[in-house]
Please model this.
Amino acid sequence: MTTAFVLSGGASLGSIQVGMAIALADSGIVPDLIVGTSVGAINGAWLAGGRSAAGLAEVWPTLRRDDLFPTKPLLGLRAFLGKSSHFVPDTHLRATLEMHLPFERIEEAIIPFIVVTADALSGEEVLITEGNAVDAVTASASLPAIFPPARVVVNGRERLLVDGAVINNTPITTAIEAGATDVWVLSTGYS
Model:
């Protein structure tokens, strides 16, 4: 039996996934695989690194809007005028991930981890199971128009990737196709 946790997208509602993960841990349910998209990739990376959900519960209350979405009036104006693809730079998101992610490369995760993203040019789903963790998780959380698309090398090819929730907000089939027999969905709301 292979147990998977599937963590959906949902921006700040990702904080409720922490409570679900704590409840699962308290019930003795441990994942053999974690699949995350958008904020679920952020939370999933923490858990895939072998860190506890209770520890993640200590991180969430310390985050402030400016930690992830710094106000940049000139960039916002440029985006409003159609001169920029995004309103917010991803530098703060990347810095926060670098500070908190428990591994540098996805393949170093203690629990196998799949990051769901979307190709900004073709619209196809792109699953990332190896490579730079900050790049992959940033890509999965790069909500179009808010953050810039992320350039990530996937299988030796550089791709322009955006938020995985655009294509697959609750990637249950991804977990099943990876061999999961028991799937626990940590949803933030509507699938």
Q: What stands out?
A: The helical segments are 15-26, 39-48, 53-59, 65-68, 73-80, 91-100, 133-140, 172-177. The chain has a mean pLDDT of 90.
